[in-house]
Amino acid sequence: MRVLLLNGPNLNLLGTRRPEVYGTTTLDDLETLVRGWAADLGVTHVQAYQSNHEGHLIDRLHAARGGVDGIVFNPGAFTHTSYALHDAIEAVEIPTVETHISDVESREPWRRRSVVRPACVHTVYGRGVESYRWALRHLVARARRPVERLRYADGAEQFVDLRFPDGSGPWPLAVLVHGGFWRHQWTSDTTELSALDLVDRGVACANVEYRRVGEAGGGGGGRASVEDVAAAVRFALEDPRVDAARWSIAGHSAGGQLALAAVASLRDVVAPPALAVSMAGCVDLEAAIAEGVGDGAAAAYVGEEDPAALSPVRLVPLGVPLTAVHGRLDESVPPGQSDSLVRAATAAGDDIDLVEFPDGHHFEFLDPAEPMWQAVAERLVAGVRPGG
Ligand code: DQA
From CA 152, how far away is CA 159, in angstroms rounded? Predict the structure, then answer.
């Protein structure tokens, strides 16, 4: 796979330009980082180009035809104005990910408007320079296997990405619920490589998107996000290519809370899952609020609602086999969250396994090469295998 890294106006000033917004990484450093991330993903060819001139960017897009398989493009301020760049991206027909370092949805209102977005296959923003890494991962995932994006409701964030193994089903289903502290800039692209890994292991995978907190997140938070995940599961289980009697579910971080709360709300609505896994789940919302986990993210997620009604530690027994997996060195979600789930679930009579990784952190679950993910994948698939 060959990727073009394209940066627009003023990005040559990275490192010194408003470091409080764009960080201290220079453009040279960024290009080196991107080459390293690309190599980790098996992308050996990376071309990098930056220009402050709209016409030069258009020429570079044209020159990419036939020479690259994907483009990671930060058009800078041209994002908000340049129909010519929109048309160039559209014309060259190379999958292009619109990429921004800063949280364009939370800054000046004019930055919320992107005229290039309709021509792009995906947008990543607000994750610092790591935005480029997620953009690359998306291009790699796209190239690996076709995906069907199906809408389970009308909102822009209410969709589920379904992937199937080769051959004919019906297939058992593994459901993934991404994390990101319920914040709008963190989306289901984070669990795409995990989804592909599950499909490689012979099950269908539903990678769920849901409404997250705030306008840019589609107006979710609280019960609305839980109901979205539950609706997505119901929707995926109705697909004729899915064996609705065999499914399992895992959620990462905030997605751990959502996955388990959705299982509670689906009780008596669908067949119970063979297994529900919390990967570093933020499953004790009251403790998370008290401890300020995620810089106040749990409080923002709960809003005016009753945290007990959303918190898996208060929703047990769920009546399905549970597994909590946590790295003891997790700096995002304290491992005590999983300990609290184990205590509550056991006291309520649920069958729960705790899988601890003494040297594990928070993000290994998103990398299929990592043992922390593999421990989850093996269990998700074993639970739904015929005879399993
Ligand atoms: C940017 C956001 C744009 O609004 C701005 O004009 C830039 C950089 C980003 O990476 O966050 O130049 O694309």
Answer: 6
How far is ligand 1, taken at its centre, from the CA of residue 212, in Å?
Answer: 23
**CA 373, CA 206: separation in Å to the nearest integer?**
17
pLDDT in tens, 342-358: 999 999 999 999 999 99
**Residue 296 parent element (H or E):** helix 293-302
pTM for this entry: 0.97
Q: Which atom in ligand 1 lies closest to the alpha carbon of residue 75?
A: 13
Cβ atoms of 146 and 164 within 8 Å: the answer is no
Residues 384/246, Cβ–Cβ less than 8 Å: yes
**Which residue lies with its CA nearest to atom 12 of ligand 1?**
76
Q: What is the pLDDT of residues 37-62, one digit of tens each?
A: 999 999 999 999 999 999 999 999 99
Query: What is the Å distance from ligand 1's center to 8 Cα?
Result: 9
Which residue minimizes the CA distance to atom 9 of ligand 1? 100
Pairwise CA distance, residues 33 & 369, whole Å: 19
Q: Is the Cβ–Cβ distance between 133 and 37 less than 8 Å?
A: yes
Q: Is the CB of 99 under 6 A from ligand 1?
A: no
Whether 388 has a pLDDT exceeding 60, the answer reads no
